[in-house]
């Protein structure tokens, strides 16, 4: 009788929403909204804001690295005392810039901006739900994120500067105010901001998981979920299990900083005095941090891979190749992501035996990643490819995923990692595989679902220009870093001229900086396209990409509650593209198998009988409900 | 005035771009191209992928070959030969995969670009293929890992008994280089004893410390094992000797180590590279604050005979600064004074 229950439940929710729709005022609609679609847009716009900040920070430090002799007086109005009298960037502020760039991009842009936007926006729409399981918690999730952002933003402007110990904020550097100015108030604000951020992630994650498990529409079994939803679901699971560990790491750091404990501190002589702390271990922090830090890579990447799977399938007019293999590889990545963290610590001084174990585990995780790549390629093979901007960004993502993934095989090998650890090779690796790939997933998603978000199309031609400039630009920025890394250039260096082994490649660094500025500039095209199209873009058709998934069965501007009438029932998987025998090259999930006898596969013909029985059942329930109501 | 003119110029440029943009969108509305499944741009984009493949591929090969000697740092340690070999084997394997997958990734868009009269193949799965591309990468990776694991185990196994010990202590922002002296045993240390004249916090009540000395340059013999004992006294640092393929974090409260055998003296390397200025260097690779980028120490690799000669010429801490042993107990002080007199 589960079906009967769901039917009555959805009917009553629907009524409930009808009553409230007309009472929305500006504040409940645009600010303290509990509508998942609005919350998704809030995350997106906030994410874009942070991406601009994070990008600008990187431009400033790229100026230092590419043009070390440049006089930066013109930045004085903005940076004040951080530009010294000779027009040079302060080395402490340089570290603050790389730290904040990392923190902002990893957490605020690629976690909140990507997962927050698309999990919120797409989960209810693609599984056929009126809203998230808890709209209120969802709203809290955004506002905790917002608060976290306000605090992090404030920390940029304080006199001692924001946190500066790298985005990993390893103690003792981050624990001792004497060690660098950024470890004072800036670090305190970093910790507070991250605490709110973790709370936001957890509130969001619980919601995503609950919604996917409980609120799927009739017929939407797990084996019929679009891969986007699988990706968001598993991402939320990873986040839920790993963010609390980051919280504990941060909490112990707070204790060490403010209450005189010695979790991470031992045998320290700094600023002319010996500290009383003994017995702590900085390596403990690294274990705790990377227990989140590594799964975080997949928190950032999986949603992008999910989005890509959907977009590549739609625009190849072909089912995604190996739907089950894709799910299994994502499951594999989810599980393995928790047992590879110490590959970030091969030369941290931990027991080398642990290093060998983590090397084995790390290289296993390359296998499901390889499977995904091959499946993407096979999906493109013999397709009928339409290059929408979303499709272009998806193909770009696959390219970055390959380039950055392959360098991971070097770094996951502890013997090779000895030389490459903390050099620009690592910078190149993760900026491609996690930074750029996820960023491209985000962009692909925005271009693809913009019509659903705002009822209008983004300009495709500007999208093409944006893609090609960004795609070529990203490679021009990060590919040269491999050479610099093999040459041994260390990360987080203000200048490389103090060493003979790194006193070269000024030309290459200049090239990278110029490419970075151009790539950043190309994003202005996107910004224009995004905001202009929101108001003046061409009005979208209901299903502009001729896609199978449920979100395209909603009205052009879905109200809170998504579907005006009954929630549609799902009869098939989301990837029936170019099915032999079918008239069109796509069959939406809402089309019953019984309506398409010409294209059904043999095993689907069997299902038709079952389907008929279910439809009859449903009608009975509907009739019963109606008679009850009247 | 110039500023004003530039501003006007930029404004004009933006308005021209704006006009072009509006005109092309209106034209496309009139043409009805928004109704088509794929516009003419589809061909352009498909072609761009091939162009990108050829262009960037050529650029990559050209630069990788031209710059090889520049980005490939000279090698001067025994284990480095092994890790370098692993690096280049991995490069060959991943390089082949990189090129093949990218050829497919960028050629498919061209080959299978949208055509109205064609229908895509309905090809949802093939378990045999999935098994193949699970098992083959697994085998390749296993081979790579086993090579790496063997090298890693050899590198990290305990140093030979006869290894020459050198202590590197990282602090903001330099390395203190301490040698154990003739006994090859470092004296004990206690961070509470640190002060301006005792940077490493050496405990001189340990008589092993009496012949310990420090130097501005790390001097090591060629062809004999050297053990770096690594410490930090304030925040994390990391010893990175790029030519030795050596890296190990320096952790406050947790001594770490790394042993290796240098294979070429500084002089030999200078001759080989034809660079009379060449030096082996140590840098810091764990962010440690403002001066992170300037923690330089030079390693001077010399012939073993020269090393022994150099070693015998060094003066211990307590010889250079007898004040260090002033507060010791009478017996220890006497012992220390004997050592001091021996060096005089």
From TrEMBL, chain A:
Matches recorded under Pfam families: COX1
Single GO molecular function: cytochrome-c oxidase activity
Localization annotation: Membrane
Domain annotation Cytochrome oxidase subunit I profile: ranges: 26-571
Low complexity composition-biased segments: 1-11
Iron as UniProt keyword: yes
Domain of life from the UniProt record: Bacteria
Gene3D superfamilies reported for this sequence: Cytochrome c oxidase-like, subunit I domain
GO cellular component, one term: membrane
Keywords tagged on the record: Electron transport, Heme, Iron, Membrane, Metal-binding, Respiratory chain, Transmembrane, Transmembrane helix, Transport
Its membrane topology: Multi-pass membrane protein
GO terms classed as biological process: aerobic respiration; electron transport coupled proton transport; respiratory electron transport chain
Family: Belongs to the heme-copper respiratory oxidase family.
Name of the protein described by the UniProt record: Cbb3-type cytochrome c oxidase subunit I
UniProtKB/TrEMBL annotation, chain B:
Reaction it catalyzes: 4 Fe(II)-[cytochrome c] + O2 + 8 H(+)(in) = 4 Fe(III)-[cytochrome c] + 2 H2O + 4 H(+)(out)
Domain Cytochrome oxidase subunit II copper A binding: start-end pairs: 161-313
Enzyme's top EC category: translocase
Keywords assigned by UniProt, alphabetized: Copper, Electron transport, Membrane, Metal-binding, Respiratory chain, Translocase, Transmembrane, Transmembrane helix, Transport
Subcellular location: Cell membrane; Membrane
Bilayer-crossing regions: 6-23, 44-65, 85-110, 131-152
Requisite cofactors: Cu cation
GO annotation, biological process: ATP synthesis coupled electron transport
Domain Cytochrome oxidase subunit II transmembrane region profile: 59-159
Entry coiled-coil feature ranges: none
Main location: membrane
Cofactor note text: Binds a copper A center.
InterPro entries referenced in this protein's UniProt entry, alphabetically: CcO_II, CcO_II-like_C, Cupredoxin, Cyt_c_oxidase_su2_TM_dom, Cyt_c_oxidase_su2_TM_sf
Membrane-protein topology: Multi-pass membrane protein
Listed GO MF terms: copper ion binding; cytochrome-c oxidase activity
EC number: 7.1.1.9
Family assignment from sequence similarity: Belongs to the cytochrome c oxidase subunit 2 family.
Function: Subunits I and II form the functional core of the enzyme complex. Electrons originating in cytochrome c are transferred via heme a and Cu(A) to the binuclear center formed by heme a3 and Cu(B).
PANTHER family referenced in this protein's UniProt entry, alphabetically: CYTOCHROME C OXIDASE SUBUNIT 2 (PTHR22888:SF9), CYTOCHROME C OXIDASE, SUBUNIT II (PTHR22888)
Name of the protein: Cytochrome c oxidase subunit 2
Organism, scientific name: Aquiflexum gelatinilyticum
């Amino acid at each position: 009788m589960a079906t009967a229950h769901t039917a009555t439940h959805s009917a009553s929710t629907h009524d409930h929403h009808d009553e409230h729709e007309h009472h929305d005022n500006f504040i409940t609609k645009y600010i303290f909204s509990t509508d998942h679609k609005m919350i998704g847009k809030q995350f997106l716009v906030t994410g874009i804001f942070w991406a601009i900040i994070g990008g600008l920070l990187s431009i400033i430090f790229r100026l230092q690295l590419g043009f070390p002799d440049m006089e930066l007086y013109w930045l004085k109005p903005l940076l004040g005392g951080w530009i010294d009298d000779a027009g040079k960037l302060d080395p402490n502020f340089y570290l603050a810039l790389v730290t904040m760039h990392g923190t902002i991009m990893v957490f605020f842009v690629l976690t909140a901006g990507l997962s927050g936007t698309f999990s919120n926006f797409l989960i209810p729409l693609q599984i056929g739900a009126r809203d998230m399981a808890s709209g209120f918690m969802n709203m809290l999730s955004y506002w905790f994120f917002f608060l976290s952002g306000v605090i992090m933003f404030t920390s940029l402007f304080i006199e001692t500067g924001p946190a500066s110990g790298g985005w990993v904020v390893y103690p003792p550097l981050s624990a001792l105010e004497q060690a660098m100015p950024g470890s004072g108030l800036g670090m305190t604000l970093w910790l507070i901001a991250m605490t709110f951020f973790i709370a936001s992630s957890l509130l969001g994650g619980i919601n995503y998981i609950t919604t996917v498990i409980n609120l799927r529409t009739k017929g939407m079994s797990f084996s019929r979920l679009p891969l986007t939803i699988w990706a968001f679901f598993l991402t939320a699971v990873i986040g839920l299990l790993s963010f609390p560990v980051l919280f504990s790491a941060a909490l112990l750091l707070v204790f060490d900083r403010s209450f005189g404990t010695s979790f991470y501190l031992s045998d320290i002589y700094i600023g002319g005095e010996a500290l009383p702390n003994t017995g702590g271990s900085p390596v403990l922090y690294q274990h705790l941090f990377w227990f989140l830090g590594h799964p975080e890579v997949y928190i950032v990447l999986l949603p992008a891979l999910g989005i890509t799977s959907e977009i590549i399938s739609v625009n190849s007019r072909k089912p995604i190749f190996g739907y089950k293999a894709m799910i299994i590889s994502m499951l594999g990545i989810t599980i393995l992501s928790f047992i590879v963290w110490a590959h970030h610590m091969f030369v941290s001084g931990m027991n080398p035996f642990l290093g060998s174990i983590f090397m084995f585990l790390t290289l296993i995780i390359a296998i499901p990643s390889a499977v995904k790549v091959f499946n993407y390629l096979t999906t493109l093979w013999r397709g009928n490819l339409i290059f929408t901007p979303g499709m272009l960004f998806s193909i770009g993502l696959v390219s970055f995923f390959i380039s950055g993934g392959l360098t991971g095989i070097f770094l996951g090998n502890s013997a090779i990692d000895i030389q490459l650890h903390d050099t620009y090779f690592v910078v190149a690796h993760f900026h491609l595989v996690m930074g750029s790939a996820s960023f491209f997933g985000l962009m692909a998603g925005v271009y693809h679902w913009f019509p659903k978000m705002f009822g209008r199309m983004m300009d495709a031609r500007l999208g093409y220009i944006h893609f090609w400039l960004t795609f070529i630009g990203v490679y021009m920025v990060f590919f040269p870093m491999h050479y610099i890394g093999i040459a041994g250039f260390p990360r987080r260096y203000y200048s490389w001229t103090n060493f003979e082994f790194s006193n070269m490649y000024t030309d290459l660094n200049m090239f990278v900086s110029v490419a970075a500025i151009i790539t950043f500039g190309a994003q202005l095209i996107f910004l224009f396209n995004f905001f202009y199209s929101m108001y003046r873009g061409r009005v979208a058709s209901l299903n502009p990409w001729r896609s199978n998934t449920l979100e395209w069965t909603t009205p052009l501007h879905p109200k809170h509650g998504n579907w005006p009438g009954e929630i549609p029932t799902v009869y098939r998987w989301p990837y029936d593209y170019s099915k032999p025998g079918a008239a069109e090259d796509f069959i939406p999930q809402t089309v019953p198998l019984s309506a398409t006898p010409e294209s059904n596969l043999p095993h689907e013909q069997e299902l038709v009988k079952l389907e008929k029985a279910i439809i009859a059942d449903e009608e009975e329930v509907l009739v019963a409900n109606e008679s009850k109501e009247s | 005035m110039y500023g004003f003119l530039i501003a006007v110029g930029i404004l004009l440029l933006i308005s021209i771009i704006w006009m072009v943009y509006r005109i092309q969108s209106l034209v496309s509305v009139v043409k009805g191209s928004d109704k088509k499944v794929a516009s003419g741009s589809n061909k352009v984009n498909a072609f761009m992928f091939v162009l990108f493949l050829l262009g960037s591929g050529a650029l990559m090969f050209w630069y990788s070959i031209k710059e090889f000697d520049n980005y490939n740092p000279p090698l001067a340690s025994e284990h480095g030969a092994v890790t370098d070999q692993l690096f280049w084997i991995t490069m060959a394997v991943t390089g082949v995969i990189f090129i093949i997958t990218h050829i497919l990734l960028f050629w498919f868009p061209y080959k299978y670009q949208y055509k109205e009269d064609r229908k895509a193949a309905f090809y949802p799965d093939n378990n045999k293929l999935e098994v193949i591309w699970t098992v083959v990468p697994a085998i390749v990776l296993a081979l790579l890992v086993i090579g790496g694991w063997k090298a890693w185990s050899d590198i990290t196994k305990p140093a030979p008994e006869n290894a020459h010990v050198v202590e590197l202590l990282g602090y903001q922002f330099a390395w203190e280089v301490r040698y154990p002296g003739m006994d090859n045993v470092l004296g004990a240390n206690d961070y509470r004893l640190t002060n301006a004249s005792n940077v490493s916090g050496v405990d001189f009540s340990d008589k092993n410390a009496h012949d310990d000395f420090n130097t501005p340059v790390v001097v090591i013999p060629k062809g004999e094992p050297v053990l770096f004992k690594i410490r930090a006294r304030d925040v994390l640092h990391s010893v990175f000797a790029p030519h030795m393929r050596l890296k190990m974090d320096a952790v406050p409260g947790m001594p770490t180590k790394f042993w290796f055998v240098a294979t070429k003296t500084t002089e030999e390397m200078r001759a080989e590279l034809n660079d009379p200025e060449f030096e082996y260097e140590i840098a810091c690779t764990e962010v440690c604050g403002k001066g992170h980028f300037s923690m330089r120490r030079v390693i001077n690799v010399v012939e073993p005979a020269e090393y022994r000669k150099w070693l015998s010429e060094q003066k211990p801490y307590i010889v250079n600064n007898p004040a260090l042993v002033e507060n010791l107990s009478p017996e220890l002080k006497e012992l220390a004074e004997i050592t001091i007199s021996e060096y005089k």
